[in-house]
Each structure stands twice: as C-alpha cells, then as structure tokens.
Amino acid sequence: MTGTGKSALGTYVDEQRRETIADRVEELLSEMTVEEKVGQLNQRSVSFVMGPEDGNEDLEAAIADGEIGSVLNAEGLEAKQHLQEFAVEESRLGIPLLMAFDVIHGYRTVFPTPLGQAATWEPDLAERAERVAATEASADGHHWTFAPMVDVSRDPRWGRVMEGAGESPVLGSAFARARVRGFQGEDLTEADTMLACAKHFAGYGASEAGRDYNTVNVAETALRERHLPPFEAAVEEGVATVMNAFNTIERIPASGNEDLVSGVLKGEWDFAGAMVSDWNSFGEQLPHGVAADEREAAKLAMLAGSDIDMVSEVLLEELPDLVRDGDVPESRLDDAVERVLWVKGLAGLFEDPYRYFEEERRKAVTLTEDHRETAREVAERSFVLLKNEGVLPLTEDTEVGLVGALADSAEDTLGAWAWGGEPEDVTTIRAGLDDHFGDVPYAPGYDLPGEVTAESLDEARDIAEEADVVVAVVGEPADMVGEAASRAHIDLPGDQRRLLEAVHETETPVVALLMNGRPLAVEWLDDHLPAILDVWHPGTEAGPAIARTLTGEVVPSGHLPMSFPYTEGQIPVAHDRLPTGRPAEDSEEDYVSKYLDVPNDPLYAFGHGESYTDFAFTDLTLASDAFPSGKALEATVTIENTGDVAGRDVVQLYVQDLVGSRSRPEKELVAFETVELEPDETAEVTVEIDEDDLAFWTDDEKWAAEPGEFDLMVGHAADDIVHTERFTLVE
Ligand code: NOJ
C-alpha cells in the first residue's frame, strides 16, 4: 500500500514517514509465519472492563502467541497498557495491537447523535465534534473508531438511522468527509487523532422493511447513486478503514462480496486501507446459506478482499490451512496483512506503541469546559423547529411547567451508542430549565418507555393548569434506537400521547420536545399542539442548549436530514422519488399514483425547519442558461432575513434532469449552504454546480451527465421550492 491513486490515505504521512513505514512493513512481512500473518487479521472483543488482575490468561497467551492483531472494547488505560505490553514484549515480532471502540457521537463529552448533527446541515460542526471525540477517546487509549456510519437510509423503522446522516447521498457525503477529517485530523501520527472506519459497506441502510440485519434488495442504480457515494467520499478523504455490512447484496453477503470489496472499493476506488468485518459477519455467511462450514466462510471472505475478522475467528481457525492448500493465495494473505500493518504504521504505533496511554493527558483533555461548550453549540444547531404558532420563544417571566420522564433521564438524553458517556455528566432538560427559570414544577407523566396511570396523568394536568406554558418531553428512550432496535410502528412509544392529550385538554399551550433517534409519525401533535421542537438525543449539554433555545437566546436553525412520514405506511418516503407514469396532480383523480387515506408527501419534508425569524429567497440567477460540458455553472441566490431577530438558514438547491436515458428524480438535493443574517440583512450565496453533480449511473454502467434540460430549484425545504430556473447542459 502506498496511498497513491484515488485514495488519499497516503496523504496523512509525508514521504519520509511513508518510506519508514514501508520498510518496517516489508521487514515484518518477510519474517512472519503464516500463523503470525493470520493473527494480524484476527480481532478479539475483550470485556468492557478488564483489569490486569482479571485472570485473562487465555487472552494474554493468545496475544503473546501472535494470534491477535487488534482488540475492541478494551476499557481503561491500565488494561490497554497491559495488553499492549503483552503484544510488544511477549510476542515474537512485537507487533503492537490496535485498540478499537465505537466512538459514535462523542466520547466522555457526548454530542447529539449523528442524525441530529446532520440536521445542522453544517459539516464543519460535525468535524469539530469528531475532533473533540477523537481527542478524548485517543487519550483513553483508543486508536481506532468504528465511525462514521455513512449508510444512507430512508426507512425510519430501521433503528440505526440515528447513526447516519439521513436520506440524501449529497448531505451524507459531505458529513462523511467532515467526520473522517474530524477523527483523523491532519496528521494521523498526532496523539489526538483516531483511525476512522466508514461503515457498513454496503447497502445496510436499505435493510428490507427496516428490520435490522435483514436482506437488502437494491438495484445497481440505487446502489451506485444512493448508497455508495458517501463511501467513495470517505475514501477520497483518506479514511483508513472500511467495515463490511451484515446484509447481502445481490444475495451475496457483503463480507464475501467480491464485486463490492475487490471490485468497487479496492478496485475502482483504489482504497488503500484495511477492510474489517462487522461483528461475526464472516461467520454469518453460514446462516446466510452461502458457506457450508467455517472453512468456506473464511475462504469467501478472503477471496472477496475483506481483511480483518471481527470476532468470528474463522480466519484464525481456517486460513493457515487454506493458504497451505492453495485455496487462498498467500499473496492475498500478504495483501491483507500489509494493509493492517500499514494502518498500524499510520497510527504511529511502530514508533511508540504506548503513545496513547498517558493518564495525565487523559485527565487534561476529558470533559473540558471547551468540549462541553462545543457539545452545547452543536446541540443548539441540531434542533429542528418542526412547528411554531407563536408560542416560542418563551419570555423570561413565563411560568413554565414541565412534564415527561425523558426530561429527567440522563441516560436517555445521551442516546444510544454513547458508551464513553456518563449519565452524571449530563445536564438534563429538567436541570437546564431549573437553572434557567428557577425550580420548574415537574411531573414525569409516564414511566419509560410510555406507561401512564390515572395518577400520573392527573399530576401532569395539575402542572399544566398552574403554568402559562407546558413543555412536554416525549419520544424514544435510548434503547429504542440504534442497533437491533427496529420498530414497526414509529409513533410515540406506549401511551405517551395520552400524556399530551391530558395536558392539551387543560388549554394551556403545550410545547412538545421530541427526543428521538428516527423520524416519528407525529400527525396528532402537528394537528393539536402549537409548537414542536425536535431535539433528537442531544447529549451532555442538553439542558442549557434547550433552555437557551426555548427562550430565544438561540434561534433554531436545524433542518430535517430525513423526511417525517405521516405514517409508516408511506415508507419509503424521501425527497428524491422518481416520477411515475400516473402522477397524482389532483387528489380527486382516479387511477393515479396515490393513497386513498394519506397524502403522498410526508408530514414534514426533507429540509424542513422553522425559525424565530423569516428568510426570503428573493432571487435565483444562473451565470448562463447554457452550461458547456466540462465547465461549472454558477447559481446565485439572494437571501434576506425579513424577521426581527438574527438567525441562520440553509440555502437548499435541488435539481431535476427533465429527460434522461433513465428516469430521474423529480428533485434531488444537489448543493446547500448555511448563512447567518441579522434582521434586514441580505446576502448573496453563490454555488457552483459541476457536471459531476448532474451525473447518474447510466445503462452503460458508468457515471455520466447527459446533455439536455435541467431545472434548478431553490427552496426552504424539498416541499417548499420558491424559484426554479431552467438551464441546458450542452455537449
Ligand atoms: C456491530 C455493529 O453493526 C457495528 O456498527 C459496530 O461497529 C460493531 N458491532 C462493533 O461494536
């Protein structure tokens, strides 16, 4: 691996270091036995808490015997130091271990979930969040995070949508790049950086029926246009590792899918880093029914081009014989090992295997005021005001009542996949409102996830009756989202809605705060409540961020990265749907593409997000209405803050290719930019559209933009387009 070609991985080290790593890798490879090589591909999970005295003799012996190349989930510096000593001092070649961990949205300082971060539409904020996460996690001895998840998904039933950037490959690619940059920094040998891992390659976001680990059926066009772009973006950005997905693609499990791994990732994109399986995904080729035994599973994974085996140990058990019998060429084994050793070299482990284990640094950089402030800022910018009929912002003298158990649950405020976080560090919504308004009368209203009683509802009603405004926190506890957390019904859990009905009956205005990991079906709330603010799972700084937003110190500026359907019956629902032969222009018409009982459009569209101020896009102009192939087209939008307070908005540009050799979406996000404006201030935002931005996966199995007419649209959301300009791409 040299890092040349399309992959930018090699740019993380200078020429001289590259040579040093190359020499070391070559030297090691020449000295290694087949068993030692296979050991580098074996990743073991060690228990979350493991001390030196825990009697892990088997693990120690396996490390000393060179059977383990990396571990995941090791906790505590002492344990990591101990394991590394075994690798470096007791194994024959002294190759250091890589320590991996799922650092998904912060570490000790927990940020909003990735879906919430995507709602900022500001990739730079996600980059800053990952810088903080990498600083804290690396100081706790982790070299490698299994993030970012860059799976594009338009199915909110799938619990893992909270880990990604939503439904758009354009937004998703921008966040993929930013998050890789954030984790890996500018120089991977710096102690505050981590190796990143783009996952899950590929198509996992399309798990059929939103059921986790399920089959994926995507056409080549959807795979190429929708699911692969964020991975390619991560590779271009220099991501060090990529993880296989659990699912099948074209009936072949992703881990053993040669077309995907060797063909696309390592072939077309020239990915130079290492490919890691998902948890036991090599082994799961047996239940998928494509491997008769572990030997075949190991062979399929290796021949596909996958490299590291997370926990199944099929490589450890079977690969040496497969190589000796000539069923897997030794050159393939060498290629995989070379990639792993390179990644270790890039992380600086050959110079100093203990460089991440400094207690002093850990103490100095963990949960600092600065990190908390960044977490608060990102949280504030992630909130999406779904609806506001003038109730918000609250004035300082508002008598606020608070209901909803989620308001007081630190653990749920952190959200799923926050293993590095501690509930006691969290300022909950309740604590945040207490700090701001004095002791706010509070009743939980329901037991999590959503059990109500006559008494709990009475208590909540009493709070509402005494208040000017009642803030009701509803939504999903953390364990209802993330991995293995699919839901067939995406409404409020249990009887939470009865709490809302109870407080609403008092006629005190109700502001609903939604805490959620996925789009929820909240039509009743939209019909009955004057204000709804989506705060996702906001992390450590939830309380201050929410108090400041409710009172107007912060003006909400988030926009949805994923459509919110009326009901799960509409799924999949996304902004970039294809036209049909029977468009439903008039809802009275028969024999057109529509439902009898719900609209085609979602309740809240992709890109939707209100503010305490108003923005007007007063103009959209194109530098030319003919755009010669190979050049860029400049589009300028004039935006004005027409309200009374300063605020931020997102200029969203969508495109439609009017006639193509394949049917093209009615509109798809093509570019976006955020702007901050004082009242009455006007700005011009100029965006360049390249031919590549108009390209799609053609019948010739390649990307191409076809000459012809296109509409460029600017809007406040996918369902709120205010100007359209037509241009022609000329050959
Ligand atoms: C399984 C998950 O699918 C993956 O995203 C995660 O990184 C691994 N487990 C390791 O925890």
Can you tag this structure with a few keywords?
731 residues; alpha/beta; TIM Barrel; Rossmann fold; Immunoglobulin-like; six-stranded mixed sheet; five-stranded parallel sheet; 21 helices; disordered N terminus; binds 1-deoxynojirimycin
As for the number of domains, it is 3
Unreliable runs, pLDDT <50, ≥5 residues?
1-6
Based on secondary structure, the structural category is alpha/beta
CA-atom Rg in angstroms: 26 Å
Shape: globular
Report the count of strand segments. Answer: 26
- Strand order within the widest sheet? 11-16-15-14-12-13
Arithmetic mean of pLDDT = 95
Largest sheet: 6 strands, mixed
Tally of separate helices: 21
CATH class of the largest domain: Alpha Beta
Bound molecules: 1-deoxynojirimycin
The CATH topology label of the largest domain is TIM Barrel
Tell me the CATH superfamily of the largest domain. Answer: Glycoside hydrolase, family 3, N-terminal domain
Kindly describe this structure.
By secondary structure, the protein is an alpha/beta fold. The chain contains 21 helices and 26 strands. Strands 11-16-15-14-12-13 form a six-stranded mixed sheet, covered by helices on one side. The chain has a five-stranded parallel sheet with strand order 4-3-2-1-10. Helix 3 links the parallel strand 1 (42-45) and strand 2 (70-72). Helix 7 (169-184) runs parallel beside helix 9 (229-236). The longest helix is centred in the first third of the chain and has 17 residues, at 15-31. It starts with 14 loop residues before the first helix and ends with a strand. The chain binds 1-deoxynojirimycin. 1-deoxynojirimycin binds at residues 72, 102, 146, 199, 278-279, 483.
